[in-house]
Amino acid sequence: MVDHKFLVGIRCNTYNQAKYITDALNGFAMQQTTFPFVAMVVDDASTDGEREVITDYLKANFDIENTDVAYQEETEYAYITFAQHNTNKNCYFAILLLKENHYQKKLNYKKFDYIARWRETTKYEALCEGDDYWIDPQKLQKQVDFLENNPEYGLVHSDFQFVDTDDNILPTPDTPLYKNIKERVKNGYVWDSLLVNKGFILTCTILYRRKLFDGREKQFIDHGLFMMIARKSKIHYFNTIMSSYRRNPNGIMLSSHKIVSNSMMHVLMHQLYYYHSQEFETADYYKKSISSLLRRLECFASIIIRGGSNLFKERKILTRLICYNPLYILLSPLFALIVIFKKLILKK
Length: 348
Description:
Elements: E1 8-14, H1 21-29, E2 37-43, H2 50-61, E3 62-63, E4 71-74, E5 78-85, E6 91-98, H3 110-114, H4 116-119, E7 124-127, E8 133-134, H5 139-149, E9 153-163, E10 169-170, H6 181-184, H7 191-195, E11 207-209, H8 222-230, E12 234-246, H9 252-255, H10 257-276, H11 284-288, H12 290-306, H13 310-313, H14 315-324, H15 327-330, H16 332-347
Parallel strand pairs: 1-2, 1-7, 2-6, 9-12
Antiparallel strand pairs: 3-5, 4-5, 5-6, 7-11, 8-12, 9-10, 9-11
Helix pairs in contact: 8-10, 10-12, 10-14, 12-16
């Protein structure tokens, strides 16, 4: 068995997506690259037959018999298969079929340890959940080429299309989350824009420098990862459709809107804390920008307005922020009025 190193790793967490997972796997396997990449697919103990779909896909498309490359093993937490694609020799899959549901047991953090043997060899990382999929076979190559040639950028993302559960293309939903997507997408330093919902990044479109990932930072949801990278580097947007995002009624963004909304508040609060703490990296641009200061104040006021009981849970972070910069509490009434005014204008 040969030890492999990969330029790109793809993280795909999936649960009960038997109907859709083949689209995701095809999107990975069709990538045409000049470098080796590995798709790390973690099935969280699905009960709808997804595990069988994944296993059958491996048998049909990957060389699992070549023990010089492929291997299978059982651990206390998963059944694992690693193999190379039959025809796309730069494509490798690492499949982990977990024995128990980690989301229900609040053990999701352990998934990073499970895929570490492949992930830690990579320079770049892409994300795609099991019900979304890529449609551009050059997605990884285009994004890697850009980051290789532009070291000041830490993350790239692209345009995408909405599809329904039968892969029909949908118009952009008329919801606050997706309102004015095109106008909100920006290039360059976008962290402070993300603080006040003036930016937009979609998970299944991204590729980022893995060295910028800091496991100490609480992410809560993917938006926390985007802000982690954006706080340290520039962001680039490809105005080309590379991915399909499925409007799945059983997906986390639709089925657990309240959870996502509460998580967003925690993300913003912790991002403000990471900005001020010397333990965490922040680009100098934000330290010198007046507009960044104003957006941080607006963000803090928004947190106070909608925080509710969550403010008590995060009282230590709130206290630290006020100690870092008393303007947060001194000017929060003014910026609270600005936030409320903006909401009233948007409703009209």
